[in-house]
Design a protein that fits this description.
heterodimer; A: alpha/beta; Rossmann fold; elongated; B: alpha/beta; Mannitol-specific EII, Chain A; 5 strands; globular
């Protein structure tokens, strides 16, 4: 089908929509890597000093996991979102630059910037150069372009992106500092919660709250500052709200996330849920505020920093006189954020919340809209040039991305290049890695057309049953060419360049009425080609509704009767004439694709 | 990578596509490219989505999962002059194949050769040359022409 991207109503990109899109993008960089965050969190909770089973050797895992593994994974995923495997790889390379830029803070945010940014750079680079690469040099180009560009991006990340991230978290910290100075502690939640969701929690927690808290605790034996960031209440409330009122995937995974968050103290796990639906930050802020307010009301505090921020660590650090206040504060903040988040989730009927079920629903709708425009059958694709207007990228998709699609892509790249079109890239991938974007033309095998359509509803789709000699390729090239207004040449040259053997008189001599069987000859070194010629001719006959059987036979197997029509090359024809006297022979230049063959089909029964 | 002489099997006569795939797969096994498990993965992949490419060729290869069986990149060729039908029972048309390319690809090393094969085989009369070839060298020569 041809989903015409230009005809779809453009969504108003209101600020809300933009924030939503941004949040969804961030969350989809983190979500696939939650397992790594859990692994890190568990190691921290169990083996770190002050954990359940402290073990200095095993605890060595924590820092590399937090500082290297997770940011690189995020950068990798972020890169893949923008530009598939190539983007993923370069995203990881670029991310390492930001990491090394400042080894003291975990560069989650830097990774979220660097991953997609690096991939985007490579994408632009490829658009400029990939089509100029000579056939056979693709691999060298691919590896070296990514490698060199990756190195440059890593250096730029180190020198530019790291300071930007540092500056950002510095800004957050000083804002928190300012609010504390005017003794409006609950209001710090306005800064802290959004900063946490952007993975700046460690920067704020360890950078400012903990040092100030230690100062206070040294004086009066406890401090509420330790709780501002470590309070697990707000996150718990949001995850519980997802358990009850969430949709699809988010709903299903929320209970587990809640347990890991609340008892494991891995706050990171709830951030993607907020990013998915950024308005939920309101719930987190109100939860944090009410919690802090409650702590102050009870004059509660912790003896030292609770890290990680699990309920267990918090209670372990609670000052002797503060248990009631701490528990009350955590519960109040959880309750408040639960109520607000539930309200938001319940009210929210929009489908663009980025969760899986909603996406699926959206897809069904789109599919319903396009009903009636069923997948075109091979030969009747009515390609409107209009639908090609936005195409800037062609992707061949097959099951594993190993063979078929690579072949198809080579062929089409060749054709596109020969047609003088140089602003369109032709690549291949597995269907499962397709992603929807504007300006995409997807070519697939017919079996996979459905899946490809689901993956990329807004792309132009072409399905082929023959990757090697599909007329679709010429169609695609012709359409693209029509757009770029290059002087037109006949789209299809195959078959037409073969001149008709000037042998109309040859056919005139044949007595078609007596023919009961058409034969191709297997002789000498022509076994395989006879098989192929027979099949092609059978196919032509079937399409024309003709019934005369077509067979390949050995040269000595024929009955010498005039009801045989033998199609042969000149050499074979001579050979036949020596052996047989009654069979009828048509000599063609090419037994596979001679114009004469079509003439024969017309005259046969 | 280049096509090797001992990865080419001429003049085979088989009656089912699975036999053809197994021949191509066995060449890959004997060539040290894959372990036995890969062959089943090739059969599975072909059942899932046909590797028939049109123009009388098929390029059986493993599934995504089957990649774990690959030791190194390799391409094998099986010539079947009498042809073998690659179609499924529910396909309307016969999908006759005379040349089978078995593929084991790691790190895209096979893409260059595959792309040569694709360009060459996009002309059906070239496939006929492969199907008629009398020696492994002839096949290698034919495919090499494309690169030039």
């Amino acid at each position: 089908m041809q989903a015409d991207t230009s005809s779809k109503p453009k969504k108003k990109s209101s600020l809300k929509a933009k924030v939503q899109k941004f949040g969804t993008a961030l969350s989809s960089m983190v979500m696939p890597n939650i397992a790594a965050i859990i692994a890190w969190g568990l190691v921290t909770a169990i083996f770190m000093e002050g954990g359940w089973a402290p073990n200095a050797t095993i605890a060595k895992l924590t820092s590399p996991m937090l500082h290297y593994l997770i940011p690189i994974l995020i950068g990798y995923t972020g890169g893949r979102m923008v530009y598939d495997e190539r983007g993923a790889l370069i995203g990881a390379i670029g991310t390492l630059g930001v990491i090394v830029g400042d080894l003291n803070i975990p560069e989650f945010l830097g990774a979220m910037i660097m991953g997609p940014l690096s991939a985007w750079c490579l994408k632009k680079f490829d658009q400029a150069f990939q089509s100029k690469v000579k056939s056979g040099f693709e691999m060298i180009y691919n590896n070296f372009s990514s490698g060199i560009l990756g190195l440059i991006l890593a250096i730029l990340g180190m020198l530019i992106v790291t300071p930007v991230v540092e500056w950002g978290s510095g800004l957050m910290s000083s804002a928190v500092d300012a609010i504390m100075k005017v003794h409006l502690l609950p209001l710090t939640a306005i800064i802290i919660e959004p900063a946490k969701v952007l993975f700046l929690n460690n920067a704020i927690g360890n950078g400012i709250l903990v040092p100030l808290g230690i100062e206070q605790a040294a004086k009066v034996g406890k401090s509420v500052l330790f709780l501002l960031e470590a309070n697990p209440g707000p996150g718990l409330g949001i995850l519980l709200a997802f358990c009850f009122f969430g949709k699809g995937d988010a709903k299903g995974s929320a209970p587990g996330a809640a347990i890991i968050h609340f008892f494991g103290g891995i706050h990171e796990i709830y951030f993607p849920y907020i990013l998915m639906k950024p308005i939920l930050i309101v719930a987190a802020i109100l939860g944090g505020m009410s919690g802090t307010f409650t702590f102050q009301l009870f004059n509660a505090g912790l003896k030292a920093a609770a890290s990680p921020g699990s309920i267990i660590a918090v209670l372990a650090m609670t000052a002797k006189d503060s248990y009631l206040g701490i528990i009350a504060g955590v519960l109040v903040s959880a309750a408040v954020s639960f109520l607000v988040a539930s309200f938001i989730l319940k009210r929210d009927k929009s489908t663009d919340s980025g969760d899986l079920a909603a996406k699926q629903k959206q897809m069904e709708q789109m599919k319903a809209e396009s009903k009636g425009k069923e997948m075109p059958s091979t030969d009747e694709v009515r390609t409107s040039i209009n639908s090609y207007a936005n195409v800037n990228k062609i992707i061949f998709a097959c099951d594993a991305g190993m063979g078929s699609s690579a072949m198809g892509a080579s062929l089409l790249r060749d054709k596109v290049k020969k047609a003088g079109i140089d602003n369109i890239s032709v690549t291949n991938t597995a269907v499962s890695r397709l992603k929807d974007e504007a300006g995409l033309l997807v070519v697939t095998q017919e079996e996979l057309a459905e899946r490809a359509l689901e993956k990329t509803p807004s792309a132009v789709h072409v399905s082929v049953d023959n990757f090697l000699s599909s007329p679709k390729y010429d169609e695609i090239v012709a359409n693209l060419k029509a757009l770029s207004q290059v002087t037109d040449t006949p789209a299809s040259e195959i078959g037409e360049s073969k001149k008709v053997a000037a042998s109309g008189d040859q056919l005139a001599k044949i007595d078609f009425s007596s023919i009961k069987e058409v034969n191709f000859i297997r002789h000498d070194q022509h076994q395989g080609s006879a098989t192929m010629a027979t099949s092609i001719f059978q196919d032509k006959m079937a399409k024309a509704g003709k019934k005369t059987p077509v067979k390949a036979v050995r040269i000595n197997e024929l009955d010498d009767e005039n009801d045989h029509l033998v199609i042969a090359t000149k050499a074979a024809g001579k050979n036949l004439a020596v052996r047989y006297s009654n069979i009828q022979i048509v000599v063609v230049k090419d037994i596979l694709q001679d114009k004469l063959l079509d003439e024969l089909v017309k005259k046969l029964n | 990578m280049e096509l090797k002489k001992d990865m080419i099997l001429l003049n085979q006569d088989v009656t089912t596509r699975d036999q053809a795939i197994r021949l191509a797969g066995q060449l890959l096994v004997d060539g040290g490219c894959v372990d036995e498990g890969y062959i089943d993965s090739m059969i599975a992949r072909n059942e899932d989505v046909s590797t028939y490419m049109g123009n009388f060729i098929a390029i059986p290869h493993g599934t995504d999962e089957g990649k774990k069986h690959i030791k190194k990149t390799g391409i094998s060729v099986v010539q079947i002059p009498m042809g073998v039908d690659f179609s499924n029972d529910d396909d309307a048309n016969e999908q006759l194949v005379t040349v089978v390319f078995g593929i084991a690809g790691l790190n895209n090393e096979h893409l260059q050769l595959l792309s040569q094969i694709a360009l060459f085989c996009s002309d059906v009369s070239n496939v006929a040359k492969l199907a008629d070839a009398q020696s492994a060298d002839e096949i290698i020569d034919l495919l090499q022409e494309v690169g030039k």
